[in-house]
Amino acid sequence: xxxxxxxxxxxxxxxxxxxxxxxxxxxxxxxxxxxxxxxxxxxxxxxxxxxxxxxxxxxxxxxxxxxxxxxxxxxxxxxxxxxxxxxxxxxxxxxxxxxxxxxxxxxxxxxxxxxxxxxxxxxxxxxxxxxxxxxxxxxxxxxxxxxxxxxxxxxxxxxxxxxxxxxxxxxxxxxxxxxxxxxxxxxxxxxxxxxxxxxxxxxxxxxxxxxxxxxxxxxxxxxxxxxxxxxxxxxxxxxxxxxxxxxxxxxxxxxxxxxxxxxxxxxxxxxxxxxxxxxxxxxxx
Length: 285
Known about the structure:
Blueprint: H1 3-20, H2 26-36, H3 45-62, H4 64-78, H5 85-113, H6 123-139, H7 154-164, H8 174-184, H9 189-217, H10 219-222, H11 230-260, H12 264-284
Helix pairs in contact: 1-2, 1-3, 1-11, 2-6, 3-9, 3-11, 4-5, 5-7, 5-9, 6-12, 7-8, 8-9
């Protein structure tokens, strides 16, 4: 077992976990670290599944009561045909989550199955993406407490879903884009943030499913390391646990910040990071 190798997996687990649910691109941070330290480490399909499972489990744990309520109420409304306003409200909310993930689900699946890796790109694009994220957050800074609506309609969900496509650009934060799109649809920021995080659950499930399918099509891409080296499993699952706790902590942090209405640190961070990435990318280019 290589201690430095373990530290590297821990580092990527931390970055994946913390930045996954903050308005900062986690993939952009990882790519930046790799460029800076000249790290040739490449994500295997199996590692992507494992480390994303960590963040997914954290989201499920954090929203377990909401998820249980949505699923139970939807079942009672659609299957048992119970006439209850709360059951109907939950089934509509769940339907709108599914509507919102349609655009990125279709485009993301096409890109993944076609083998196009848009994350494997220069620091220039990552820098531009981070600057775009910072700009979006800055322009929406006064809208975080402007609206009080908590009703997510199908139209609003579709608009949020369309804006989410921007998150496919390396360096662009999915959470920043979708939460901002929600406030543009006159939703309260807390409502937009919660909706964005909840719809990331089926997106994560779908991404993992696509990776698994690709893995069974090409089993070598799923298990691309010597399975006799047990410590590789240890590295991977260490990243998963680190990612789990990182995401769980970040979820608590983002809602505390939301309540205080202070997002300056996020758009300032994105702008500074974007400028640094862009400058280094131009110099190296």
